[in-house]
Design brief:
- The protein has 10 helices and 9 strands.
- The two termini are 34 Å apart.
- Helix 7 runs antiparallel to helix 10.
- The strands form 2 sheets. The protein has a 5-stranded mixed beta sheet.
- The protein is of the alpha+beta class.
- A hairpin with a 7-residue loop joins strand 8 and strand 9.
Length: 381
């Protein structure tokens, strides 16, 4: 069962509770399901009981108790537990991993895309700064995955905009780091920028134009372009907006301590697994991976959580959330990869084909996420 299918299952449980007179609420259009947070359990959690508590006129835990038996009886759900103020934690039955892999195979690069911003134009205001340019360029793509359309406006570097005026319009950001200006140097037609504050302002709506978001990430301490396009973009995007980027050759090292290397290496490993499996006459076929397979549960959880991460990255204008989730996915894949192919004289089995399909799904997600960040995903590394 994929997150989308589980969301529909949760809504059907709410509808049954309403039809049987146990709840008096309007059935919502959407039910959010995510991997469980701290203190949670199972495969997924939903806050639907907290969402309905006020309109139902009941405490959230009581709403959760009403919904629990309806969810438990749903096909594909093995168990439901209630934690915290009323979170429903759902453990899926057989077929959860297989359904997720099939969903990723079907949607490919569009896996995780949604419509929460469908039809919305999202203006972004940025200063003339290389990090702000790269963040905005990345957000153009991330917002598009949720149906939004970003328009990038530049803030004049030397003077405040007169009250009541719109920010100057420019073309959408599309920074090529191989030709980008050094941080702190404005384009030739602009006056030199003022000294930057040591910390970034969080993304916030403009006071005069609430629909506009102003992005002022902490500038890089030096020009990152010497790192090359991929490492430079990672150095600027992986830290949170309020953190100062670290511009260092460490981003180029092919070592486990380098998160960018781990993500790109994990993607390359999925491609190598496909090539090596083909030499053995083995192809991926979605199936369930036993819980005792190292990294299996973690990898399924990371892949299942990818759509929610994309949504949050878009809503909070935070590409760093996507970058960090790719590291989590890569680490799970690297722990899992050793179980994929047969060892020694062992013949490929259904279990190997299921693990291969899961690894290939991880490769699809890693490649898609890196593409959204503007970073290449090589097949060989």
């Amino acid at each position: 069962m994929t997150p989308v299918e589980l969301s529909r299952t949760v809504l059907r449980a709410v509808r049954r509770a309403v039809d049987e007179g146990e709840l008096s609420v309007v059935v919502p259009v959407r039910a959010v399901v995510t991997p469980p947070g701290p203190g949670g359990c199972g495969d997924y959690a939903t806050n639907i009981a907290l969402q309905l508590a006020r309109s139902a006129g009941r405490p959230a835990r009581q709403v959760a108790e009403i919904l629990r038996p309806h969810l438990t009886r749903s096909e594909g759900v093995a168990d439901v537990a209630i934690t915290g103020p009323g979170f429903l934690n759902i453990r899926l039955g057989g077929g959860a991993g297989a359904s997720l892999v099939r969903e990723i195979q079907r949607r490919r690069d569009a896996y995780g895309h949604g419509d929460i911003l469908a039809g919305q134009i999202v203006p972004l205001r940025i200063p003339y700064d290389i990090r702000a340019e790269v963040v905005a360029d990345t957000l153009v793509r991330i917002l598009a995955t949720q149906g939004g359309h970003a328009e990038v406006h530049h803030i004049h570097p030397s003077r405040a905009e007169p009250a009541g005026t719109e920010p100057s319009r420019t073309e959408p950001a599309g920074t090529d780091l191989s030709q980008a200006k050094t941080t702190g140097n404005a384009p030739s037609h602009a006056e030199p920028p003022r000294t930057k504050a040591p910390h970034a302002d969080p993304p916030r709506p403009d006071r005069l134009h609430p629909q506009i978001t102003t992005l002022r990430p902490t500038p890089a301490p030096e020009d990152p372009t010497a790192l090359g396009p991929d490492a430079a973009r990672w150095a600027l995007l992986h830290p949170a907006a309020h953190d100062r980027p670290r511009i260092s050759a460490d981003h180029l090292l092919q070592r486990e301590s380098n998160p960018l290397f781990r993500v790109r290496y994990a993607h390359a490993r999925t491609r190598a697994l496909t090539r090596n499996a083909a030499a053995l006459g083995c192809t991926g076929d979605p199936g369930d991976v036993p819980e005792d397979v190292p990294g299996g549960d973690e990898l399924v959880g990371a892949l299942a959580g990818y759509p929610a991460v994309l949504t949050q990255a878009a809503l909070h204008r935070a590409p760093d959330r996507l970058a960090r989730h790719l590291v989590t996915t890569a680490d799970a894949l690297l722990a899992f990869q050793h179980t994929v192919l047969p060892l020694g004289d062992e013949k490929p089995s259904a279990a190997h084909r299921a693990r291969l399909a899961l690894a290939e799904a991880a490769g699809t997600v890693l490649a898609g996420g890196l593409s959204l960040l503007g970073i290449s995903a090589p097949d060989y590394l």
